[in-house]
C-alpha cells in the first residue's frame, strides 16, 4: 500500500457515509482506501479500476490466484542471489527483470510486483512506449517473500468480492447509483504533462474538471484527492475554484520529500467533497467536526 494513501485512509474513513451500496475507486493503484474500508467492516461490493492494465492485471492475480503470485514472486526474489544472477548488482538484476517485463507480450504480474517493490519512492513511471522506466532504489532488494505473501493473502481475502476493470474513469463510474461512494485519486497535476509519465495516459485538468462536473450534476457522492500542499507550495489548480465542491485541507503527516532533503515539513492533502456527499454527512459543519482544528483548514 502506497505510504501517502495508507496515511490518508483513516481520514477518508471519517468521510464515509452510512448506507453505502458500493465503493468505487476509478484510479485504484494500491487500492488503499478500498482495503482500509473493507478491513474496517464495510461488507458491500467494491469496484476497483485502473486505466493502467498492468495494475489491473496484478489485482486480478492477487484476487484469483494469490498463492501462485506469492510463489512466483518468491522465485524472482530468490533468483537474484543464485547462479549467474547472483553475480549481478541489485540494480543490474532489477534492470534485467524490468527489461523482461517490458519486452513480454503478456506481462507477468509477479515481475510487475517485484518492480513495484524496488522502484525509487514506489513511484511508477512509464516512457512514451508504455515501458516502465523508473529506476531501482539501490538501498533495497525488494520486500522479502514472506512479508509479500502475507500482504498478498490478506489483500486477496479482503477483495474476494471485488470487481476489477481497466476502463476510462468515467466509464467506470457511469453506472454508479446515488448511494455509492466514489473515491477519486487521479494523478496529481504536474505529473501527467511531462515526457516521463506516472500513468500510461495523462489526465488533463480540463478533462477531469468536466468529468467531476458530470458527477455533481448526477448527484453522485464522491470524495476527490487531487492536489497537495507541502508548506507554502501548492501543486495544481484548486478544483473548488471552478466547481461546487467543499474543499478541506487535511494535515497528513510529515512530507517524505522534505525529509529526504533534510527538512521537517508538514504534508497536506486537499480533499474535495461533492454536494451530495456533504449532504449525506450532515452538512459542512458536520464534516468540519470530524477533524481537530489543527488538522483541518478550509482553503481560500
TrEMBL record:
Protein name: site-specific DNA-methyltransferase (adenine-specific)
Example GO biological process: methylation
The species this protein was found in: Corynebacterium phocae
Signal sequence residues: none
PROSITE patterns per record: N6_MTASE (PS00092)
Catalytically driven reaction(s): a 2'-deoxyadenosine in DNA + S-adenosyl-L-methionine = an N(6)-methyl-2'-deoxyadenosine in DNA + S-adenosyl-L-homocysteine + H(+)
InterPro entries (UniProt xref): Ade_MeTrfase_dom_2, DNA_methylase_N6_adenine_CS, M_m6A_EcoRV, MeTrfase_D12, SAM-dependent_MTases_sf
Keywords: Methyltransferase, S-adenosyl-L-methionine, Transferase
Domain of life of the organism encoding this protein: Bacteria
GO MF term (any one): S-adenosyl-L-methionine binding
E.C. designation(s): 2.1.1.72
PANTHER family: DNA ADENINE METHYLASE
Enzyme class: transferase
Pfam families: MethyltransfD12
Gene3D superfamilies per record: Adenine-specific Methyltransferase, Domain 2, Vaccinia Virus protein VP39
Transmembrane segments: none
